[in-house]
Amino acid sequence: MKIITYNLNGLRAANKLNVLEWLKKENADIICLQEVRADQNICEEILQDFNSNYNITYNCAEKKGYSGTITLSKQSPTKVLTGLNSNINDIEGRTIISQFDNYTIVNSYIPNGSKRLDYKKQFIADLTNKIIELKKDNQKIYLCCDANVAHKEIDVNKPKETSKKSGFLLEERILIDNILKNDFIDCFRELNKDKIQYTWRSYKARQENNDYGWRFRFDYIFCSDNLVKDLIKCYSPDLEYSDHLPVILEVK
């Protein structure tokens, strides 16, 4: 099975750059998209060619041109939830939980903390509690997300300069520690112990071949520890569709 998670930084913009053609060629079983930044009717029109091969769940933000998540799956989910709390409307369209017979996919776009750090920290805490709750039923969980947090110094190219900025604050990194302490695995790091890989590049960094500009590993696929034996390969191809790179996970 192949799983892709990808912050598109706008579905319309990515579509103009032929990201959908790339996705078709990848032929993944699960595709989790974040920051689609468009109303559902626009997203449906752009993704209409995927309807024959995928079940598609949309969770678009109420605010136009902002946030939003989409999950595409070849297999039909048995249950779909939008948001982390069924009693609270996910007005920013940040999370889709798709349950299947043998596993659960959580697609989540964690807020940027530059202006809303407390909100971001609470969101990560709530997300962690949700995946712990799902795992209590012995479910197998994949969490696909743009975390907007680089976990370790190996995950950022300028750790000293960025240690005082949201994205690499110690208090944010501890929240990623907490996910892992609750029996979840960072799939990329599990399979690539010492590899340097960044999934977000500042636009300055994108325009330079050297180490100019900031680079972070913001994008993750976490899995519950009962799936670790199934992991085969996790990687990020160097694409130009977004300021983010996709994360691709192959599992048995």
Uncertain stretches: none
The description of the largest β-sheet is: 6 strands, mixed
Oligomerization category of the chains in this entry: single chain
Note the overall shape. Answer: globular
Our Rg estimate from Cα atoms comes to 17 Å
The main sheet orders its strands as 3-4-2-1-14-13
* Head-to-tail CA distance between termini: 6 Å
Helix content percent band: 25-40%
Q: What is the chain-wise order of helices and strands?
A: EHHEHEEEEEHEHHEHEHEEEE
Mean pLDDT: 95
Which class do the helix and strand fractions yield? alpha+beta
Count of individual helical segments? 8
Which characteristics define this entry?
six-stranded mixed beta sheet; single chain; 252 residues; globular; alpha+beta; 8 helices; 26% strand; 14 strands
Blueprint of the fold:
Layout: E1 2-7, H1 11-16, H2 19-26, E2 30-34, H3 40-46, E3 55-59, E4 69-73, E5 79-82, E6 95-99, E7 104-109, H4 117-135, E8 141-146, H5 159-162, H6 170-181, E9 184-186, H7 187-191, E10 200-201, H8 203-206, E11 215-216, E12 219-224, E13 231-235, E14 247-251
Parallel strand pairs: 1-2, 7-8
Antiparallel strand pairs: 1-14, 2-4, 3-4, 5-6, 6-7, 8-12, 9-12, 10-11, 13-14
